[in-house]
Structures are given as structure tokens and as C-alpha cells.
Amino acid sequence: MVIVREDLLGRARRETPTVLNYKLVADEASMLNTPPTFTWYVAGLVFKWLKRQGGVVRMGETQSRQGREALPAIDESDFYSNPVARASRSWMNVPFTLARPELDKSFVAAAGEAGLVNLEGHRSVGGMRASLYNAMPPEGVDVLIEFMRDFARRNG
């Protein structure tokens, strides 16, 4: 909800987004556009959660640790490989391939049984992708690494 004095309507700067130009909104009886209030609400919840976790610095430290643990588990393996050059790798999205691509489906199925989901790689690239976003607890990375080692032992 926005309450604006009428004498202030029509004074928006030229670069003001239409949805924030309250003269236009008032002229259209508030039906000009519906702001994405649900998105703003959810973003607010996420920002509060991030602050409770220690803020951006703490989340960066967590992401760094998770990436530093996941990437060597792939690089030091003869069973997995990472197709991205080391200097260009992300700590949040860790793609990897299996030594034998015919095992991809059984890897995904076994991972699902272990509670690890959404590991399928991009449809145009294939392979796997572990998304280690902010909400991923550090213990989840440990479970993934242990699962990958066990799967490689059983299928290597």
C-alpha cells in the first residue's frame, strides 16, 4: 500500500519506472500494474534468513568451503571429472561427468534413494551438476561426497 499526497503526484523523474510513478498508478485507479509483492515478500524472508546465518560474508565462507571440498573429491577421482577449466569454476554449481556415461541414470536413481536430488546436468550438456546454493547445509556436501565415493567404488 502506498499513500501519496496529491500535490506530489506527477513529479516523478523521467527515469522512474512506470510501476513507481504514482500519478500513472492513480490515473489508472491502481490498476496500472500489480507490483510483484509476493516476490518482494519472499526476498525479504530470504534476506532475514541470510542475516541470521551471519550475512553475506559468512555465506561466502560457507560457499568457499563447500566448493573446496566438493571439487577435490571430483578432481582426485579416476571415476569423475569436471569439464570446466579450474580458473573458471563455480563454487555453487559444480558440474561433473562419470567415467562411463551409461551409468548416469543409475547414479541419479541411487542418489535419489540416498536423499540427493536434482543432480542431473543441463539437458544440452549432460553429466551431473551439484548445486551448492546458500540453503544447502554443509552436511549435504559431506553426504554427496561420501555417496560419490561409494558409487565409484561399486561401479569403478
Summarize this structure as a short list of keywords or feature phrases.
mainly alpha; Aspartate Aminotransferase, domain 1; 2 domains; 5 helices; 8% strand
Quickly describe the structure.
With about 160 residues, this protein is mostly helical.
Describe this structure in words.
- The chain has helices spanning 22-27, 37-52, 55-75, 104-113, 138-155, and strands at residues 80-81, 93-98, 128-131.
- It has 156 residues and is mostly helical.
- The chain has 2 domains: 6-35, no CATH class; 54-155, Aspartate Aminotransferase, domain 1 (Alpha-Beta Complex).
- A 3-stranded antiparallel sheet has the order 1-2-3, with helices on one face.
- The longest helix has 21 residues, at 55-75.
- The protein is elongated and about 75 Å long.
- The protein starts with 21 loop residues before the first helix and ends with a helix.
- The model has no long low-confidence stretch (mean pLDDT 89).
Which CATH architecture of the largest domain is right? Alpha-Beta Complex
- Cα shape: elongated
With strands numbered from the N-terminus, the spatial order across the biggest sheet is 1-2-3
Would you state the CATH class of the largest domain? Alpha Beta
Question: Major sheet: size, sense and barrel closure?
Answer: 3 strands, antiparallel
Q: Quickly count the helices.
A: 5
Mean pLDDT equals 89
* Strand tally: 3
